[in-house]
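subagent[fold] <- orchestrator: predict structure for attached chain, return tokens only, no commentary.
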Amino acid sequence: MRLYIDPGTGSMLFAIVIGVFGVLLYFLKGLIVKLRFLISRGKKTAMDASEIPLVIFSDDKRYWPVFEPIVRDLNERDFDVVYMTASSDDPALENPYPHCKAQFIGEGNRAFAKLNFLNATILLSTTPGLDVYQWKRSKYVKYYVHTMHAPEAGLPMYEVFGMDYYDAILLNCKHQEEDIRALEKLRDLPAKELTYVGIPFMDEKLKKVRSMDPIAPHERTILLAPSWGSNSILNRFGEEAIRALLDTGYHIIIRPHPQTFQSEKEMIEKLMEKFPNSDRLEWNRDTDNYPVLARSDLMISDFSGVIYEFAFLFDKPVICALQDFDKSKYDVWWLDTPTWKLEYIPQMGAILTEDNVSNIKSLIDSVIEDTQYAENRRNICKEVWLYPEEGSKRVVDYLLNKYQELTNSEKTPEEEV
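subagent[fold] -> orchestrator:
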């Protein structure tokens, strides 16, 4: 009989093994430090040459666009960074920047095992859950900094405790600071360092949008861009939504989330067979989604982050399929303040429901023609996206200043002379 260990127990056992290994490693390093102290007769020894000044950790290759502007700015300032990725095919591994050393550190627990004993001054990441599950704070990393990977204002939409154990968080709007401070007070956590920097990857995307050729006059085009999972549009409305869209007479583009083709293969294949490509409908799976966004006049989505790119970068109207949202596993559950996403998205466009999906043409027309929606989304964009086109500079300014602060504090008066 084969021994079966469920994922939860496996995770716990892994954490125990890592913990024991960490204690032994910490003991040995402590012993080495004491020996050095005795050999040097109490004089301060130089910093361990193995300490990396700055590490960027990415748990997935899709976050390279988040970090590349920062890496490029660091490179221009001749500051070395080690980029650790959990994706073996991460584009960062082939990056062109001389001051960026990228390395694949394994997937899942293998990556966390390396990070848990990392020796670095600063670690920058967009991954939540530090010191919650497998990823533990290393005793040899002086400072953990989190940066955002979506233009949302709602940090509490991370799973519970997602941000609690970072030392600093780089923000793009004031809503985030208010929510973080409220969670710190509720959980009696030490105050994190919060710095407003903007959104570097959105700055890059804005450059891309501005460089695109103007779109020629075309028939009204509607983009259906759902996320995946049980709450997605295709699972909730399925055939009814597609049929209603085709009945509008407009040109329809459906661009499913890539994960749909893996996790919901049977469902998506049935829909594509029932509604094949035609002069009125196209299924889009292009790697680059910007040409599709550029030629669409309105987007219909659900909880996909692309809705913000469409509204903020292309300044176009949206319809969103929000439904009763289970907050229980998210940080937002702890707060009495309104959930940013649920409060602001209805101001940028209409909400698709079971009651109005059959009348979707009227919904589309009203959202496109209502100037109030356009004014709202522009105001919300300004509120959410501070310091446009300054993001990477502000992030790197912060990182270099923090590095200087952390390393200067280690010097003795003799070394500073």
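orchestrator: received. Logging for downstream: Residues 86 and 106 are 5 Å apart (CA to CA). The chain has a mean pLDDT of 84.
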